[in-house]
């Protein structure tokens, strides 16, 4: 029984990998079957990650072998391990849930736009899950590349000049970032002689000063590679174009791709440069803080400036990234739980929004946006047309789409009562939750700027969503009703329902996040668990 | 030897970065290749430079660590080369697709107005 549970840990990587391989030789005309196999695989992965999260929530004791899976049955500093803890379980669950929604959505029409959609999709899922699970830096690179390679294919899915142009930039930038990743990893290896994250955390405190400088340099270079992925301000100019050009299901899973960057930064920052790191504790924090704040500002301006909904959503990704990066950079332990809840809530919202955009825009033609801009600039000039539309009832489809859009707007801007508000509230409350034992840690100017930026970004999202919503649902130039299939609206509804569920169940959710944050704040416990895990089969 | 290697890595990386910032897709792909050569050599050098030292234990040989060179960077470099090679091939396809769609090899898909 425990043996069986133990092997569940590798399933989220192995199953999609195997299914991707199986799907390749199947003829493209059998799309429905390919889709069904892919869906079954993603569903199984989702269920497995749910089980893993339940196990992780119950604490390390209930995890088989302490949540450590030794791939070659070699103990940790020598062999590569997969590590499950609360944070990785949370990310796994979020990623596979999103993937499931996006996959269902794609089966209505988008998977017909090109070849091998489902294989690439499974590879992406495998890469994502691997990146969340691995406890080894170089293994992380391999999973990262796997995920990126699949994302290149998926971004180009559907082809067309716009996608190829955005794809070209995306691939070039990520290849350069991968080079930085390798430089960082090898610098860290050269200085410490280990690639295992757990081992690194224990070694850093006792490192000689000259090696420490090298490790810090390596970590900085590595950080840049992840910040490119997370979309921190000066490194994020590729993101809006790429995400807006991607097909909707791909854009929806891309919402989690930026969070992989954030996850790794959070993980490494807490594990390697946490409280146990000696002189290196909190390394790079001020960079994360400044960069994160600039990202929020840039994203907010972008949200206000974007005319097309796709770009609005892409800039919302940046705002979300910036909020999280700056929260990590502030280095307040009390904020971590709120930040994690914000991560989950914002990812679900943005993914739902990406899926929704295409449904809403289906009813409008490409020129509508340009026309709308002209209308805004020169005032309404089609009063006569408006009169013709009087008396046309809002049809059912538009009502559902409108409702979903409203929910997205509320969640994105962080208005009560939904989870967007709860998450932001928890985040900011953590900021003002000063430890009584240490009154010296007063609220600094940076904290105030952060609060202002977070609130302003919410306001900007509200304004932008209102403007787009009014233009789309109330002042639609032509009255075509988009034809929406049930399996397209269901994923959107489910993702939004998950956010609503998160709002009602905020208490248990916050308890989980708090436990996760406590885990992160005690990095050596995890290291100890990984390094002392017994080999399978006795000994 | 250290000097030669570091100068080589530096030259490769510098020309790689320069080409990466050029406007033609062909220059970008050559730049990325040069950059990945530099990175591969760099990973290799992180195991410290040793001459005439095997990375694997020879059967019956003495188990002294000083006789051997660090095998890990060599394994890493192998993986990095394979992945880098595959990515370059993928980039090449995107490059050709872009050329096909836009009729130009400029990275932005259109010629700058001054006719560079």
Automatic annotation (TrEMBL), chain B:
Cellular component annotations (GO), alphabetically ordered: plasma membrane
Keywords: Antiport, Cell membrane, Hydrogen ion transport, Ion transport, Membrane, Transmembrane, Transmembrane helix, Transport
A GO molecular-function descriptor: monoatomic cation transmembrane transporter activity
Membrane topology: Multi-pass membrane protein
Pfam families for the chain: Oxidored_q2
InterPro entries: CPA3_antiporter_subunitC, Mnh_C1_su, NUOK/Mnh_C1-like
Family: Belongs to the CPA3 antiporters (TC 2.A.63) subunit C family.
Protein name: Cation:proton antiporter
Taxonomic lineage: Bacteria, Pseudomonadati, Pseudomonadota, Alphaproteobacteria, Hyphomicrobiales
